[in-house]
Design goal:
The protein is mainly alpha-helical and 157 residues long. It is built from 8 helices and 2 strands; from the N terminus they run αααααβααβα. It has 2 domains: 65 residues, Orthogonal Bundle (Recoverin, domain 1); 69 residues, EF-hand (Recoverin, domain 1). 51% of the residues lie in helices and 4% in strands. Keywords: Calcium.
Length: 157
Amino acid sequence: MDEPRSGGSSEVSPDTKLDERSVFYLFDADADGRLTSDEFKEALRVCGVQLTDREFTEEVLVEFGAHPNIINFSSAVAVCRERNPDPSVLRDLFDPLTDSEGRIQTECLDYLLRRSKESSGQPSFSEEEITDLLEAAVDENGTKINVNDFCNYLIKS
């Protein structure tokens, strides 16, 4: 399995919000309004998209072309972010519920999962799904959920 690219001087922190237009024009070295495939891949990475070489070649280039313009690039960033969610963004959703150790009460998550409804009014999760989710990152006492472990579990499943 290919590993996502890492390192490089253009690495950004998860807290940095980048405007895709600015990134596009920064990487459009010859200012022709299109990116080369190498520029495309690096610009996606700077926008927080983590792809393996295979994903980039077999999915992104096929769907958006090897020389995207600004519109295709913005679309690619949006689609790739949906396909490969950023764990830090997911973790941030739990911040109001998280204690200083990065954990939330099991009862709190249980309550939220049971209250979650589809647009039709049906429960979003079955009893089995709730049990699986609660057991995914529970501590040894069974009273708290490690938010990092929980988010990683969600992203992998």
